[in-house]
Amino acid sequence: MSLWLNLTEDLFTQLASTESEEEQWKIACDSSAIEFADDNPRSHVIMEAVFFYLRFCMDSKYSYDQSKSVMEIMQTVFMNCIFNTSESTSESAIAMFKEELKGRLALQTNDVNKTMTSLFTIHQVKDFTVFFSNNMIKNFVAYQYVCCENYEEKIDVRNISIGTPLAPLPLMQANENADQ
Q1: Dihedrals φ, ψ of 116, to 5°?
Q2: CB 131 within 8 A of CB 54
Q3: Cβ(2)–Cβ(71) under 8 Å?
Q4: CA–CA separation, 50 vs 143, rounded Å?
Q5: What does the H/E/C string look like for the chain?
Q6: Pair 42, 146: CB distance under 8 Å
Q7: What confidence score (pLDDT) does residue 2 get?
Q8: Alpha-carbon Rg for the chain in angstroms
């Protein structure tokens, strides 16, 4: 069960069948457990990360089980490493990623024909690892800063008075030299 997005098969199918990225964003936001608000930069950054991970899964043509696994791995690393600034480094995030991925790569028995299968192919593991490095690790400190720093909120109020424009002079009273 995902804390930030409970990716069910129905939700995955709905997202995959929606062509508009804006509509996918709306569906993901509506389905998310993140208290999302357009005016909250912290929740916006987290929701963008979640959506970016979903888009990676869809663009890579991952199955539902693969996508759910990716989302669970990314959530575990994000929640344990990004929000734990006192002890977390990008190296600890990489170690956690490896452990989580290793657990998902274990061969699984197929109940139908009793064969051993893996959730991901070697090529998919490589692509996912590159994606993780290029996104989570490159932006690690930025994520920590956005998600964990306390910001001083300052609100400035400015009073502005707006008047109606002056009525133009009748054209009959205008002269040729008025602009000079």
Answers
A1: -95, 130
A2: no
A3: yes
A4: 12
A5: CCCCECCCHHHHHHHHHCCCHHHHHHHHHHHECCCCCCCCHHHHHHHHHHHHHHHHHHHCCCCHHHHHHHHHHHHHHHHHHHCCCCCCCHHHHHHHHHHHHHHHHCCEECCCCCCEECCCCHHHHHHHHHHHHHHHHCCHHHHHHHHHCCCCCCCCCCCCCCCCCCCCCCHHHCCCCCCC
A6: yes
A7: 45
A8: 26
Report whether pLDDT(69) > 60.
Answer: yes
Question: How far is residue 55's CA from residue 58's CA, in Å, rounded to a whole number?
Answer: 5
Largest CA distance in the chain: 98
Provide φ and ψ at 155, rounded to 5°: -115, 120
The amino acid at 4:
W
84-93 exposure pattern, b = at least 16 Cβ within 10 A, e = fewer: eeeebebeeb
Look at 76 and 115; give whichever has higher pLDDT. 76
**pTM tops 0.85, yes or no:** no
Per-residue tokens: 21: 């990225």
Q: What is the C-alpha separation between 93 and 132, in angstroms, rounded? A: 10
CA dist., res. 55 & res. 71, Å (int): 11
The answer to whether 45 and 146 have CB atoms below 8 angstroms apart is yes
CB-neighbour burial class of residue 58 (10 A; exposed 0-12, middle 13-18, buried 19+): middle
